[in-house]
Amino acid sequence: MTSFPVISRSLRRAGVVALVVFAVASGHFVTPAGLHGWHWAHILLQKLFYLPILMAAAWFGLRGTLLTAGVVSSFFMIHVLLDWGGYRMTQADQVGEVASFWVIALTSSLLFRRERRALEETAEAHRETIAALASSLDLRERETALHSKRVQEYSLLLARRLGIKEGDTLEGLEMGALLHDVGKIGVPDGILLKKGGLTGEERDVVRRHPELGASLLQRIPFLSGAREIVEYHHEKFDGSGYPKGLKGERIPIGARIFAVVDVFDALTTPRPYRSADGYRQAAAWLADQREASFDPAVVDAFLRIPYEELRDLAARFGVALKE
């Protein structure tokens, strides 16, 4: 099913294309054919009829591009017929101009479609590589390949409940949730997998993993949104977190969202040293940490998600969430 934000964006783009067609056609009609002081503007506006066709090819599929070419051709032909008493060479040129609209529409639409397909394939390859890396990180520390996938799904669900439908924040969450602990690559196994309590020095080593992870992602432009999640997911709303001690809304919204779901998943999954909490216990703990560890608005939005929805999501990724 096509989401409302995608439909809304398509309608906005269609409106822009229609506005450009109307503006170019109006200008073309206002500056008549023939030799006069504004003849250069008439020729320029005639060439600008290609602009909405190219915009449609970039934004829409073949049908949308051909529809735009049809509208442009109709406007252009009306103008041609009004001035049809001109020279045959001019008439031939005008008819050729209409034919070129369709050639450009077909060619550009096919080229843009091929480009979009290549970009989608590249993006899918990136997602699969990142998912494989996240699974390997989970296997190293938690002996499960599903923690990162669960917190990713929790994060996207919570973001949508907060009204975040599309854009960089959602994309950053999608990748950042999978890669949130990538910095633990730099933490020795003797510390990361230690069964007992950590010494102060060992704790300091573990607390470096957000900055290590952010450093690893620094040179990957398409992961800039994910980098915020990796670097700031251990910040606390009252400023007592790490590594920067950010407070309140200075913490990026993606990191504030992820902090809630990461702790929820940690509480509701069994660990070697303790059993899993039920949903009610975890929810009570999150509510108690409003304004201290977590953004109150984010916690409230999470607690409004029905238990059944969270239970079904957890079950799909290996956890039986108790009530």
Furnish the topology, listing elements before pairings.
Layout: H1 4-30, H2 39-47, H3 50-59, H4 62-82, H5 88-142, H6 147-161, H7 168-179, H8 189-192, H9 200-206, H10 209-217, H11 224-232, H12 253-268, H13 279-288, H14 296-303, H15 307-316
Helix pairs in contact: 1-2, 1-3, 1-4, 3-4, 3-5, 4-5, 6-7, 6-12, 7-11, 7-12, 10-11, 11-12, 12-13
Task: Look at the structure and give the CATH class of the largest domain.
Answer: Mainly Alpha
Q: Give, in order, the helices and strands.
A: HHHHHHHHHHHHHHH
Share of residues in strands: under 5%
The whole-number mean of residue pLDDT values reads: 83
**Contiguous runs where pLDDT drops below 50 for at least 5 residues:** none
At CATH level 3, the topology of the largest domain is: Hypothetical protein af1432
- SS summary, helix count: 15
CATH superfamily heading of the largest domain: Hypothetical protein af1432
Number of strands: 0
| Gap between N and C termini | 31 Å
Specify the structural class.
mainly alpha
Helix content: 55-70%
Tally of domains = 2
CATH architecture of the largest domain: Orthogonal Bundle
The outline comes out as elongated
Largest sheet data: none
Give the radius of gyration.
Answer: 28 Å
